[in-house]
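ok, trying the design again with the full structure, not the truncated one.
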């Protein structure tokens, strides 16, 4: 199992994994999200490969102050193996090498099953509320 940056050629496989994991929303194109991350100077998508098969992902980036992790996904056949923990560690290491000292993530309301996973890794409730505003109409 190797963990490395995805390439544009891996985007379709990543999007398929995100769909299977229930991470996508109809108003948000996962393919565009992945391409934006790969095109950015301060972001990437890391992938776990079993031979050449993509079995895990995490999108990671930073704003110069805080790091963010998105799209942590592990193929159903690999769940319970520690791969999610390895993906988070890889994202944290990527951020450290870019000089970032704090990482944050968002968990959608109702996704309580994943909160225990993050708590086990040392992530705690930051007692903040995230607000958003669309600057452009989302496309499907």
């Amino acid at each position: 199992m190797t963990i490395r940056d995805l390439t544009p050629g891996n985007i379709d496989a990543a999007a398929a994994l995100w769909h299977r994991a229930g991470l996508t929303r109809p108003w948000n194109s996962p393919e565009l999200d992945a391409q934006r991350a790969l095109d950015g100077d301060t972001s990437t998508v890391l992938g776990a490969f079993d031979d050449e098969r993509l079995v895990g992902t995490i999108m990671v980036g930073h704003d110069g102050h805080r790091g963010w992790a998105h799209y942590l996904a592990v193929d159903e056949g690999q769940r319970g193996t520690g791969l999610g923990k390895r993906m988070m560690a890889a994202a944290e290491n990527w951020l450290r090498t870019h000089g970032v000292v704090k990482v944050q993530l968002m968990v959608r309301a109702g996704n309580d099953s994943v909160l225990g996973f993050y708590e086990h890794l040392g992530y705690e409730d930051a007692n903040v509320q995230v607000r958003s505003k669309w600057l452009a109409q989302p496309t499907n």
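Keeping the full-length input from now on. The longest helix spans residues 83-97.
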